[in-house]
Amino acid sequence: MDLTPEKRQEIYRAIMNNSNNTQGYVRHSGIRLTSVGEDRAEGELTVTGNSLNRWGAVHGGCLVTLADTVAGAVVFATGRATVTLNNTFNFLRPGRGDKIRCIAETVKMGRTIALIHCTLTDEEERTVANGDFTFFFTGRPIDFILENAPEEPME
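Given the sequence above, the corresponding structure tokens read:
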């Protein structure tokens, strides 16, 4: 899909606004996109008591949700709707601290599927986890993101 630079910027803003300013699961989980661009996105998890497992580390499900959200932003930034098809995830050390950061980068962007690699780090920039996410392009337009993205943060 050929997009003008202006249309790309509109899509990037809409993805961030939609993800960061809705009342859905992502916002409830404490996840926030911090950057969306071509072939790369970044986001963070604000760690709360609800994010922790019984040993006081960030729950693995929170880490996978963060990675899936940030990886999905990379793929949606192409202007095509997608769903997660599969993921492989590696937990490398306990996630601790107030924030966990995720960087997602394109490995392959194909006609029907995309592969995105994610690296999650703690506040000391130690790798906590990494994983690969495979997405399937649905063929549906992403107009719903452009039309339903609030312009101002919701309280």
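The mean pLDDT is 91. Try to locate this feature in the token string yourself.
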